[in-house]
Each structure stands twice: as structure tokens, then as C-alpha cells.
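We give this protein:

***
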Amino acid sequence: MKFSISSTDLLKALTDVSKAIPAKSALPILENFLFVLKDNRLQITASDQELTLRTEIDVDSAEEGGSIAIPARHTIELLKVLPDQPLKIRTLNDSSFECSWSSGNSVLPYFPADDYPEIKMAGEDAQKVVFPAESLVDGIGGTVYATADDEIRPAMNGIFFDIDTASTTLVASDSHKLICYTTGDVEASEKASFILHKKPANVLKSIIGKDVEKVEIAFDASTVVFTFGSTMMVCRLVVGKYPRYRDVIPQNNSNILKIDRQLLLNTVRRVAVCANKASNHIKFDLKQGQLEVSAQDLGFALAAYEKILCDYQGDELTIGFKSTFLTEILANMSCNTLVIKFADSRRAALLLPSEEEAESEKICGILMPIMIS
């Protein structure tokens, strides 16, 4: 193998795929990048066998093709301290390669590409959909924080992609809160679904660039492949059945609060400073035209309350929430005016954008209340 390449281009490519490099692995070969050079294209692969990232970049010149596995940590550390300039990379013998630049060079070990495990792709019967990149990034960002860490129910540790021909909904829940992101611009020929674990979901969100327009998704019962530009992400799906989330979305909550979302978010943040640090409990006291938000920590003699004017139609109501859950939901919505629908102090509240913003705001959520004394 012998080729020339820009140090900046190589570093960017390696940094993107390095998110799949394991910190420690039972297979030491996985602590390496797999380089495959063919014609003037360099294919770079990183994998921990659960998650695989692969990208391709152009090289300035290629004198000799080939494939080798090179140490990930040492290579990235070297490139980070090099200024932008052409690099020349070539194999020296059966076990080492040279990386040279204008004023010096470095010799590093490499390993046979045949030792690198084969990457399992989605099967020939894989279902395919096309997702607008912006919607996919927004959908993951708007829901992933609501996923659980549940060893007993692994399905709750990921985002549920509920795909239909008319609309697609991304769902996440930890049993205390449930968030739905719905979009109608996904190209799908039939109804399908899969559960993407939160770790690859966060990685996917971080590597989709602003210049990407569409993401092609192919998936079977166990594996999903995301393809965009010259990059591909392959990962195992969470196996399990996701709960019937639509059944828990309240339909007849008749006590309705209409309020400025940012005003409520700021109020909750201020009052929550005096909430008990273990429980983070805050209390809503609702009556016609007014909301009082309060919190206290008797152990440290702390208390706070704030009254705000609002549009509230319904019975007088006192209800408690965990402030951290509520602020997460409010911070991840983008609408200006928020509608919260309550049934009573013991049943879930429904949070959604006002009717005027329902078309542009794609996120809605439900939040379970907590008992208050």
C-alpha cells in the first residue's frame, strides 16, 4: 500500500468513524482502523461488532493499493498534532508502515486485514426507507433523552421507529415520560418498525453533517444500515416488542393550560433550585387564569414559589411533577405556546404545541405526576 492524502481530510474521516472504536475489546484487532485502498478511494472502517462505521475519502494519489489494519489511538494522536499538509503513507514490510510529512516521519505497526472480522449487513430481504436528514437528526435529538436504562426491558433503552406510509413516529419512554416525534416526509412503501439503541442513535446524530439531505435506511429483524453521502453506519437492533405507546396517550384530559413555553421553562428552573435534591419535586397549583409553581426542601429549610398569569380552563387542580423530567421536555420542544392537558392529580399530563403551531412542532409528550404531601 502506498498513497498520498491530506492530513486534515484523513483526520476528519478517522475522527468520525472512531466513535465505533471500543475502549477495550476481547478482540484486539478491533482497536484498529481497517484501511482498504482501491483506485483513488480509501475506505476506512471501525467497529466494536455491535456498531460499525465506514466512510470513503479520495486520496491525492495512489501508487499501490491494498488493505491493512492500523492502530486507531496512535494514528489519531499523531494527526491531531500535525498541521494541514500532504501525508505519504506506505507499508514498509509485513508488519509496519510509514507515515511521512514535510519535516519528518513516523513508523507504526499494522496488522493483516484478514484478521479483521467480517461486518454483518442487513439481509437481502431488508426493508428500506428514505429519511430526510434534518428530520432524522431532530427526531433523535428530540426523543433520545427520554430513553430508559432498563436491564429487564431492553426495548425501553432505545428509540422506537414506527414507520408508516403516511407518517413516521419516533418514540422514547422511561415509564415516567413518553416523547413522540412525528413527521410526514419519510419515504416508505409499507408499514414497518425497529428499535435503535440510544448509543448508536447518539452516534448517528453526531455524524450526520449539515450538508446531508437524505439518509437511506435498510433493516431486517436484527441489523440496520444507515447510508448517507460516503458514510455508512451498521448496528444491531434492540430485539423485543415495544409497548403499545398509543394506548397510554391521554385522549380526554379536559383541564387545559395554555402558556408560553419559555416562560414556564424559566419559572420551573428557578423554583426547582429550592426543590429537594433527591426527589426534585415541584408542585403546580392551577386555577382560572393563574398558575403557581412551588417547591420546598424541609431538611434544609428551602422554599420557593412563583405565580404566573396564564390561560387555564378547567377545575382547580394541584399536581406534582419531577422538575428534571419537566424541564427536559420543555427544553426539547420548540413551539412558542404550549398546551398542557390534565385529567386530575393522579393521571398523566399531555404536553403538545398550540393549535396554531401544531403543523410546525412535531414533538409531543406525556408526563406522569408524582404524589405530593
